[in-house]
Write a structure and sequence with these properties.
Radius of gyration: 22 Å
Strand order of the largest sheet: 3-2-1-4-5-6
Structural class: alpha/beta
Shape: globular
Distance between the termini: 52 Å
Oligomer: single chain
Amino acid sequence: MKSLLIVAMLSIPYSLLIAQSNMEKPRIIILTDIENEPDDAMSLVRFLTYSNQFDVEGLVATTSIHQQKEIATWRIIEIVEAYGKVRDNLEKHEQGYPTEPYLKSVIREGRADYGMNAVGKGMDSPGADLIIAAADKNDDRPLWVLAWGGPNCLAQALWKVRETRSSKELEKFVSRLRVYTISDQDDSGPWMRNNFKNLHYIVSPGFHRYGGYHHATWSGISGDFFHARCDGGNFEIVDNPWLDKHIRSKGPLGAQYPYMTYLMEGDSPSFMGLINNGLNDPDHPNWGGWGGRYELYQPRTEKWFLEPETRAIWTNVTDEVLGHDGRWHDTNHATIWRWREHFQNDFEARMDWTIRDFDEANHPPVAKLNHDQYLTVKAGDRVNLDATGSSDPDEDNLSYKWFYYGEPGTLALSTARTGSPLKIQDDDMAKAWFTAPQNTKLGTMHIILMLTDHGTPALTRYQRVIINVKE
C-alpha cells in the first residue's frame, strides 16, 4: 500500500505535493572566498542539496581579508561536479534541481585583489558583470547577493551603474538587490552601505581581527566554542563526529564536505533563511527563521566596526530561548541555534536523498492551516488554531507544537522566563486555542506551528499565524 501511495504522489505536480507556502523561488548569486578555510566548501555542499528551491544565477569566486590575492574557482567546479553525480538521485525526492552544466555556466570570477583595490575605473570582472546582467533582467523578484567572502564584485557593479546611468536608473537597480553578508570580510561592505543608502543590507558589521565575528548573529550556527562562544545550542550535532556519520559518509557530494577547523558552515545562514519551510519569510528578516532574526536600525559604533554606520541596516537582535542545557539564553546567536536540531536533521535527510531511493528516505511533512495566516481579534477573545489538514508524504505519524514567538510581534507580553507567558491550550494537538491577551500594550503576535514527523531523521515544517489583537 505504501509503495502504491509513493507512485501516486510522484505523479502529482511537485508544487502541489510539497509546497509549504506561496513563497517564490529566490534568485541567488553567491560570492565566496572558498578555500580560505573549510567552511565555504561545507556551505556549498549544503546549498546544493537545496538548490531546487532557488534560481541559482551565479557562483562567483572572490577574495577576502583572509585570502587577499587569489581566488579558488577550481574548488567551486570540483564540488559542482560531485553534485552532478547525485543530481538525478535528488530529483527522485524533489523536482527542480539545476543540472551540472547549468551550474557550471554561471560560475564566474572576481578580481584577484582585496576590497576597494578592485573597485573603480577599469576594475570590471566577470563576477561584477554577472551581477549587473542579473539585476537588469526583466524579473520582478529581488536578486539576493549572498557574500560568504569579500563583496567587492557587488561594489564594482554598483560603482559602474552609478557612473554610467542616471540617478533614477541607479535607484531602480539598487531596489532590485537584497544583500546578506557574513560580517565584513573586506572594506567594500562599509563603502556600499555608506554610498547606497537604500540598499537592502543584512549584516553583523565588523572585522574578524577586531573581534567582530564573536558578536555576529551568523556565528550562532555552530560557533559555540570558537567565534560565538555561546551557550545553549546542542554542539554535538554541529561537531565533526556527527558530520562524519551523517554527512561526509554519504556519496560523492558528502565526500566533498571538509573536516571542520573552526566552526561548521559559517556562511550557511545567508541562504538558510531563504529555504521554503513555512517559517522563513525573506521579505521580513525581523520575523526570524533558520538564518537568524534581524531588525532595521542604525547601530551604535562598536570597536570591531571598520567605520561608523551612517544609515539603518538589518542587523543583530536577540531572542530569549530555552537552551539544550536547560537554561534560558537571551542573545542574537540564539536566533539561529534555536532551530539547530531542525535544520541539521533536514540536511541529513537531503544527504540521504543523494544516495537513496524515495521509499528509503524521509521527506518533510506538509503543514497546513485550516484558517487564514493573518487574523484580527479583540482582546479577551478565544483564538482557535487548526492544522488538521497537515499531512506527511511518507505516511509517518505527526507531532504538533504551537508556541508563542514573542520577539517578532508588537504586542507587549512577558516572555516565558521573565513573566507569565501566553498559555496555549492543547499546544501539542492539531487543534489548539488561547485567549487573546488583555490589559497590556496591544498589537501583533506571532504563533508558530512546528509540525514534526516520526521518520528518521525527524523532519519539521512550520506555519506562522500573525494575530492583530485590538480593543
